[in-house]
Write a structure and sequence with these properties.
The chain has about 425 residues and is an alpha/beta fold. It has 2 domains: about 100 residues, Urease, subunit C, domain 1 (Roll); about 290 residues, TIM Barrel. It has 13 helices and 20 strands.
Length: about 425
Amino acid sequence: MTADIVLRNVTLPTGRRADIVVANGIVRHVGAPVRADETIDCRGHTCLPGAVDMHVHMRGGVQAQKEDWHTGTMSAVAGGVTVVVDQPNTIPPITTPELLRARICEAEEEAVCGFAVNAGVVPDADLTGMWDAGAMAFGETFAAPSSYGEGLDPETLKELLTRIHALGGLVTVHAEEVSDRAPATLAEHDSARSGAGEAQAVRAVSALAPAEIRLHFCHASTAASVRAARGTVEATPHHLFLSHGMFDADDTRARVNPPLRDEETRRELWSCWDRIDVVASDHAPHTLHEKGVPFETAPSGIPGVETMVPLLMAAVRRRRITLISVIEKTSWKPAAILGIQRAGFEPGDRADFALYPDEITRIDASCLHAKCGWSPFEGLEAVFPEEVVVGGARAYTCGDLREARPAWYPGQGYLSLQNK
Ligand code: DOR
Ligand code: ZN
């Protein structure tokens, strides 16, 4: 057997050392090495399956000043993320198969890693058309208003969820309760979109959704929301690593929906780490210029696709969480929820990997690849990958992109039509 690439001396999550032989983007064999075009020695590094970030806003189009598919996916790869799932609250929002296909074409031309695109959930959206055209999932579905997304009332939401269930689709939900007051500070923003309100909204959506629907809650920011969720639940690095007290009271960069909470709430969220299915970044970049307005009118959203796994890897190095829990929540579980072949260490697995050194460094926004050029995680401990393999090819080595490997991951609606 010849191979495209062999990863030598990989320490598997079980602790066993092995060589991973890759051909045509797939793990062929785990054990002894064979001859290969390229070899990577993994000694001194921890090898993780590539992460699947199931919640990113790659912007582009008329919002390309914030981010585009090239910079956004460069940022992903540099952070060990090899598949991203784009949210449909673009301008215009993705509500028809034509818009979905155009979005996929834009990504095919510019992306440097795997990608999928979700369908927008609004009353007049062509849900069936988008499902057949390859939407990965439906949502994020706004059960409350947010940047570039209007909230749906319970009736409408129930009706849309029933239609998505009939298609066999996965629905992802942004659940919050929002008061009318325009907040002037991060603490007021936290009260205006309270943790208790979020948990209540999660309970309400859980109750009105059809019994067997594939339901996923985005960015739970409190332990109560995690516990209230039916289906699967996601948490973000910003709700795990940041609280609003870490910023000046009116720092618009830290304005995000759901809001950053207080320190006690942040710690409580960690206490239900085991119940969190997925960590996803909700990478939602805005420029510093756009953030440079009074707090009341500043857009919500922060960048984070590149720093997600590095922050978690620093927590692994500090022995706060286990390596296997990070692999589960950033790679295996999201792949399983979405129905994407998993990346990993068994023959037949998708050959997406990232190699992390032992040393902990600190986040320096000037070294990141997102277009917006800033990070709310500046100065926090992190471990960045030195080598990233995407689709069985060496895509990123010590800061340099070597090869762009865009690959579209269609959802189940499209796949079932192909198999007919
Ligand atoms: O803070 C947020 N920003 N929350 C969202 O739900 C949307 C996002 C965005 O697209 O900017
Ligand atoms: Zn959201």
